[in-house]
Automatic annotation (TrEMBL):
One of its GO terms (molecular function) is ATP binding. Residues 2-231 form the ABC transporter domain. It holds the Pfam family TOBE. It comes from Marivita cryptomonadis. This is Molybdenum ABC transporter ATP-binding protein. InterPro entries: AAA+_ATPase, ABC_transporter-like_ATP-bd, ABC_transporter-like_CS, Mo/tungstate-bd_C_term_dom, ModC_ABC_ATP-bd, Molybdenum_import_ModC, Mop_domain, P-loop_NTPase. PANTHER family: ABC TRANSPORTER I FAMILY MEMBER 10. Residues 290-356 form the Mop domain. Keywords: ATP-binding, Cell inner membrane, Cell membrane, Membrane, Molybdenum, Nucleotide-binding, Translocase, Transport. One of its GO terms (cellular component) is membrane.
Length: 365
C-alpha cells in the first residue's frame, strides 16, 4: 500500500507545498513544531482541502484538484489516531472498539484479536474514563484498526503520554507494524519514536520536504543534523542478537563486527534495531587499548561538518553502516579527522538505553 502526496495550500502566511511518496511500512513525517505535519495528515484524511495537487493511495485517487475529486473522510478508508484518544466516554471499551467497524461497514476483524494484539483484552467491559492514558490510546488504535483501513494515520499518538507510558506503548506499535502489515503515516517530533518505528522518513521544514529516504540514510546525513536536533543526532543500525552473557550483556552482530549492549530482550538470532547517538561515540586514530569501553569499531571518515559552536559532526562508514560522532572541533583538529581518515569509533555499552532498542524487526527493515 503506497501513498503519494503532492499538495499546495496557503494558510495566511504559511505555504504548504509538500510532495512525497510513502511506501509500504511506517513513514514518519518529522519536523519542528509548525512545519506543517498535521496539515499534511489532515489533507490526507480529508479534513483539510488543498488548493492544488493530488493524493492517491495505492492508485486510488483520494483528492485531485484538476478533476475536482475530493473523497469525503468516510470514503477514504483511513484510520486516524490523534494525540488524545477521543474515545466516547459514555461507551465501554468494547463498544468504542466496535463503533468504527460499524460506521465504516467494513469491519470483519474480531475485536478480541485486536484486543489481544494491543494488550487491552482485559479492559473490554471497562468505561473509558477509568483508563490510563496509555490504555486509552491503545483502545483508540484498536478502534482505528477495526475500521479495516487501507492505511493508518497517526498524529503524535504518544505526545500526551509521559515517559513510562510511552515506553509501555511503543512495543505494541512495533507489534502492530509487524503483525498487521498495515502501512502507517506517523507524525512525530520525537526522535526515539522515529528510530524505533520508521521504515521511511520524510523531513519537513516550513511546509516543504527537505529530505526523504530510509532511516539509515536520513538520520546519518550530517546536513540534516540541524533539523533533527544536535542532541538527538545519531544512527540507527540493524543488528542480530548473537549471544547473551550472564553478566548482563548481549552481543550483537552488526556489519562492522560485534557490539555489546545491556541485555537485549530478544532471543539469539533476532533482528533488532539499535539507535546510537552521535554524542555517545568518541573517535581514536589508533585502536585503543586498556579502555573500559567495550565497543571499538574500525571506521572511515566520510564527512566532517563544522557548526558555529565548539562541536563538529563526523559521518563515518563502519562496515556497511553509517554512524555519526559528535566531537569537539579541537579534537578533530588534533587528531586530523578529515574526510577519508581511518579511525576507530568507540562506544560505551551502557550508553544505549533500552528505549533505543527496537526488537522483533523483520530483515531488511
Ligand atoms: N486552519 C488554519 N488557519 C491558519 N493557519 C493554519 C491553519 N492550519 C495550520 N495553520 C498554520 O500552518 C502552519 C503549520 O501547522 P501544522 O499544525 O500543520 O504544523 P505541525 O508541524 O503539525 O506543528 P505541531 O508539531 O506543532 O503540531 C502553522 O504555522 C499553523 O499556524
Amino acid at each position: 500500500m503506497s501513498l503519494s502526496v503532492d499538495i499546495r495550500r496557503s494558510f495566511g502566511g504559511f505555504d504548504l507545498r509538500t510532495a512525497f511518496d510513502a511506501p509500504e511500512g511506517v513513514t514518519v513525517l518529522f519536523g519542528r513544531s509548525g512545519s506543517g505535519k498535521t496539515s499534511v495528515v489532515k489533507s490526507v484524511a480529508g479534513l483539510v482541502t488543498p488548493e492544488q495537487g493530488n493524493i492517491t493511495l495505492n492508485g486510488r485517487v483520494l483528492f485531485d484538484a484538476a478533476t475536482r475529486t475530493d473523497l469525503p473522510v468516510h470514503k477514504r478508508r483511513l484510520g486516524y489516531v490523534f494525540q488524545d484518544s477521543r474515545l466516547f466516554p459514555h461507551l465501554s471499551v468494547q463498544d468504542n472498539l466496535c463503533y468504527a467497524a460499524r460506521v465504516s461497514g467494513r469491519g470483519v476483524k474480531d475485536p478480541r484479536e485486536v484486543g489481544a494484539l494491543l494488550g487491552i483484552s482485559h479492559l473490554l467491559d471497562r468505561r473509558t474514563h477509568s483508563l490510563s492514558g496509555g490504555e486509552a490510546q491503545r483502545v483508540a488504535i484498536g478502534r482505528a484498526l477495526l475500521s479495516e483501513p487501507d492505511m493508518l494515520l497517526m498524529d503524535e499518538p504518544l505526545a500526551s503520554l509521559d515517559g513510562p507510558r510511552k515506553a509501555e506503548i511503543l512495543p505494541y506499535l512495533e507489534t502492530l507494524r509487524r503483525e498487521t502489515g498495515l502501512s502507517i503515516l506517523y507524525v512525530t517530533h520525537n526522535m526515539a519514536e522515529v528510530a524505533r518505528l520508521a521504515t521511511h522518513i520524510v523531513l519537513i521544514d516550513e511546509g516543504r520536504v527537505v529530505r526523504s529516504g530510509a532511516p539509515e540514510e536520513v538520520l546519518t546525513d550530517p546536513d540534516m543534523v540541524r533539523l533533527l536536533g544536535i542532541r538527538d543526532a545519531g544512527a540507527v543500525l540493524s543488528a542480530t542478537v548473537s549471544r547473551h552473557y550472564s553478566d548482563g550483556l548481549s552481543a550483537l552482530a552488526i556489519s562492522a563486527g560485534e557490539i555489546m549492549l545491556p541485555t537485549v530482550d530478544a532471543p539469539v538470532g533476532a533482528k533488532i534495531r539499535v539507535r546510537i547517538l552521535a554524542q555517545d561515540v568518541i573517535l581514536a586514530r589508533a585502536r585503543p587499548e586498556g579502555l573500559s569501553a567495550l565497543n571499538i569499531l574500525p571506521a572511515r571518515v566520510l564527512a566532517v561538518r563544522r557548526g558555529e559552536g565548539p562541536g563538529v559532526i563526523v559521518q563515518l562508514q563502519a562496515g556497511e553502516d553509517r554512524l555519526l560522532a559528535r566531537i569537539t572541533r579541537r579534537s578533530a583538529d588534533t587528531l586530523n579527522i578529515i574526510e577519508g581518515a581511518e579511525c576507530y569509533a568507540v562506544m560505551k555499552s551502557v550508553a544505549v538505553s533500552q528505549t533505543d532498542i527496537a526488537v522483533g524487526l523483520q530483515t531488511g527493515l
